[in-house]
Each structure stands twice: as C-alpha cells, then as structure tokens.
Amino acid sequence: MSALNKSRQMCLGIAIGVMLCFFVYNVCLERKTNIQPRVVTFTKVSTNAVTETTPTNMQRRRRERTKFIYVMDILHKERIAALRRSCLRSKTRLNKMAVNSNALYSKTYKFAVCDIQKCGSSSWLQALMVMEKYFKPEDYFANRIVGQEVMNLGNQNLRISSFTSSSFNNWQKAMKIITVRHPFARIVSAYNDKMALNGPGSTPNFYKPMSHRISKKYREMRHNPAERNHENGGAATFEDFVNFLVKSPYPTDSHWIDFELSCHPCTFQYDVVVKFESLVSDISYLEEKLNITVKDRKVFFPNRNSRTQLDVVEKMFKSVPKNLALQLYYKYETDFDRFGYERPHWLD
C-alpha cells in the first residue's frame, strides 16, 4: 500500500473518531441535564409544510398571468420579426419617425390602433368611445354606438391627427397595434356584408347599386353559361365580385383595399399584430399589457369569435374557377406574405 493511501486512511479514521466522541459527549450531557430531545411529529410537520408551500389561488393566477404574458411577448415579437423580414424582401424600409395620423388613439391606455375595415374596426371604435368617456357602457350593450355620426365623432376626436400639438409624441409613446385576418376571409366577409343580396351592409344609396353595376358588368364572364343571364335579384354573385376585384386596376374601397395601403405596415413601427384567428388570446394579452380595467374589459372585444371560418371561405371559393381564385391570390399576395398567411391548399 502506498504512503498516500495510508495517509488517506489515517485522516478518515481520525475524522470518524472525532464524530463518535462528539456524539457520545452530547448523549451524556443530555442525560446529565435531563433535557429531552425535541420530537417533531409527522402530522405537525406535514401540516406546516402544506401551509407554507401550497400556493394560494391568487398566487397561482399571478403565476399563470406571468407565464401567459411571457409566451405572448415571444409570439408577438416573432410576428413583428416576420413582418420586418417580408418588408426587407420587398426592399421597403421602416421609418421610425413616421406617424400614422389616421390611427385611433386611446389617451387613457396609451395605445394606437390602425383599424382596418372588416378586421374589427367597428369593435375598436366602439370600445374607444366608451374608454374615452364619449359613451357609457350601457350605450354599448344597447347597440347605440353605431352610425355615421359615431364615425364622425371618432374621426374628430380619436384619430392621432386630432391631437394636433401632440400627435408625434402620442404615436411614439403608444403601444402601436395593427389588426389583420386571413385575406380571403376578409374578402368573403366584405362580399357577404356589402355585395350579397340583402347583405346587412348593402346600403341602398351606395353598396346596393354598386353590387348591381358589378353584376351587370361581369355576369357575362361567369364560368357557367347557364348562369350568365341570371340576375340574382340584381346583386353580384361572389364570382362577379372576384372578377371585379381582379379586373379593377386597384381596389379603392376601404372594405377590401389591401393591408399595405390601409396601414403601411412596412413604414410604421407596429408593436403588436392582432390576428382574427387568435383573437381570444391576443385581446387577453392586450388587456394585461395595457392594464385595462375590469369595467372597460366588458366592452373590449366581448365577442371574440372569428366571424368567417376558413372552411366557409373554401366553400365560397368553390363557386369560383381556380384560375380566377389564383389571380385574386396574386392580387393580395403581399398581405399573405406580410402576416404569415399560407397560400390556400385548394389553390394547388
């Protein structure tokens, strides 16, 4: 046995000896002074442990809220990063000094939103009308925050441009939001609302006669010859509407103009991309980030279900020839690319 091993064994033996001596000394001292060893029952320890380590409901909710915000922060950073990459591919650069003067602005919660038609624009306006005290919550639930007068009031008082002396600072310091949805779902929603026979937004002084003109001009281009003489009650069919969008030099109506022209996402520095397809989690995220009060949350997108499901969109497009649907896709391809929407599989 080497000298090193002998030395190690000697040290170990000394250490064990010291520990035994210390133990014997304590036992003798305990008997001499008649001190009883401290006994902790299993029941007592178990009860205290549960009391000290089990989180309360409030702690659990706080933990879940922190985790939710963390995950959503990452998601929205990824969406913005994807948007920036798309902009770079088209060689469009961000202008950090640019101000979207047409965005709605909340002075109470310090956020600005580019409200795109058919992407929840009415819900944004109605919520801000209550949040900024122009209307009461009961007006919202009684459906009184509607009509052209409400829109005029919003344009005069809630647009960034209405804060003439502070518009730049308001925009720079605000959380900047853009709300989008699947481009084809938006087009189907616009058709059902504005162009379809008896559509809820088919106003007799504008969209109804517009639908009639589209029907008259494009019915001869319908792929089924048997339908070319069908007047459809004077309203455009969905195929007529798609032909109109494809053949128009550039759509100008705010209900189907593309996201690029509506909000210039490559020019303005947005912080959050809200998508209709994830509206429940996105709006919940904004409620937490903006510290929206319980009272105001009641009017902040209370109906968070996506209005037009993608299976409905696919069904609508079955009435449209594939080559025509492809032309429409190429017309709105930038919107698909900017916000991470995949080309529909039924176009392949």
Please tell me about this protein's structure.
- This protein has one domain (93-347).
- It is 54% helix and 5% strand.
- It has 16 helices and 4 strands.
- The chain has helices at 3-33, 42-53, 57-89, 121-131, 137-141, 148-157, 167-173, 183-195, 207-218, 238-247, 259-263, 279-289, 294-297, 310-317, 322-331, 333-338, and strands at residues 104-106, 111-114, 175-180, 272-275.
- Strand 1 (104-106) and strand 2 (111-114) form a beta hairpin.
- Helix 3 crosses helix 12, helix 9 packs across helix 10 (238-247) and helix 10 (238-247) packs across helix 15.
- The longest helix has 33 residues, at 57-89.
- The chain starts with a helix and ends in a 10-residue tail after the last helix.
Short description:
The protein is mainly alpha-helical and 348 residues long.
Which series of helices and strands comes N to C?
HHHEEHHHHEHHHHEHHHHH
**Care to count the β-strands?**
4
Range of strand content: under 5%
Characterize the main sheet.
4 strands, mixed
Q: Provide the residue-averaged pLDDT.
A: 86
Q: State the separation between the terminal residues, measured CA to CA.
A: 80 Å
SS class:
mainly alpha
- Unreliable residue stretches: 1-8, 18-52
- Which geometry do the CA atoms define? globular
DSSP helix fraction:
40-55%
Radius of gyration: 33 Å
In the sheet with the most strands, the strands line up as: 1-2-3-4
